[in-house]
Amino acid sequence: MPTIYMIRHGEAAAGWDADTDPGLSEKGREQAEAVAREIEKRVGKKLPVLSSPLRRCRETSVPLSKAWDCEPVIETRVAEIPSPVEALDARGAWLRRIMSGTWAEALTQENTGGGKVDLARWRQSVVDALTGLSQDTVIFSHFIAINVAAGAATEDKRLITFRPDNCSVTVFETKGDTLTLVEQGREAETKVN
């Protein structure tokens, strides 16, 4: 059964409603260094490294990738939740609104705000990315994507099942098309960034 170490990116230099693709803050870079050391110690061997294409995840993956002398593979299916809204301030309001409910409610509201996104397809693609892995893997991803995996593993229909802190490590095992939550990552009252 492959083990998946799913890491939320470090603190971003700007929030989701202020920048579409921010890099890491200074604190985020320090968090990335710390989680690289944690994973090296915990895993004890080199594993494949996947990253969301967004800067905050790619930058978080750099210390571990350097330590393991590898290039992270960009995996678009573990990227940020797509927004039907383009205006940054409206994106934040949309995300805050859907985060408090269930996936069924979010799917009903997904097209409010003018745009069209297929949240059901995105959600399934996150699960497919993880269940399609054939070996232990480290993945740098996002708050909502980690919640998608946790919800799939525990059959929890809420959009937010827990609040993974920046650079927390959530561990899953996969067998066939199922996910098992082995260890929930460190939680914090954190803003989505």
Which secondary structure elements does this structure contain, and how are they paired or packed?
Elements: E1 3-8, H1 26-43, E2 49-51, H2 55-67, E3 73-74, H3 88-99, H4 103-109, H5 119-131, E4 137-141, H6 143-154, E5 169-175, E6 178-183
Parallel strand pairs: 1-4, 2-3, 2-4
Antiparallel strand pairs: 1-5, 5-6
Describe it for me?
This protein is of the alpha/beta class. It has a single domain, classed as 3-Layer(aba) Sandwich (Rossmann fold). It is 39% helix and 15% strand. A six-stranded mixed sheet has the order 3-2-4-1-5-6, sandwiched between helices. The longest helix has 18 residues.
Offer a concise description of the structure.
By secondary structure, the protein is an alpha/beta fold. The protein has helices spanning 26-43, 55-67, 88-99, 103-109, 119-131, 143-154; strands spanning 3-8, 49-51, 73-74, 137-141, 169-175, 178-183. β5 (169-175) and β6 (178-183) form a beta hairpin.
